[in-house]
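#structure-requests
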Amino acid sequence: MAEIIRNGKAYDSVDVKVQMNGIPIEVTTLTYGNAQEHQLNHTMGANATSWSWGKKTPNAKMGIMMHDVTPLEVAAKGGSIMNIKPFTLTVEFVNEFNEIIVDKIVAKFQSEGRDVTGDMGLKMEYDLFALQVKLNVLNPL
């Protein structure tokens, strides 16, 4: 079962579908969203008189089982998944209102490695360098 955390809201579902460049992949976790700079503006006096916002920064991380990431390593230039060019992740799931949600993430691997434990099934959570996170691409607000 995959766990999707989208802007802080968790969705657990066996119906989560993730595709990497159109190819279905199995993920154990996927966390993504956007953050935006905010600041208080001051004039004379101690209290802020207004606020403003600035740049948006997308973020993402993804958990994958080792048996699913090793083919990516073999196919990657030099054996490093960090050498894989930016890819598109498409995430589909059903929200709490029984609506189909489709999100789109453009990212590349920012980390690589192993997490060897005594648990059955080795998995690793990878930091992604997110270039873009678009939520509700089929139903824009």
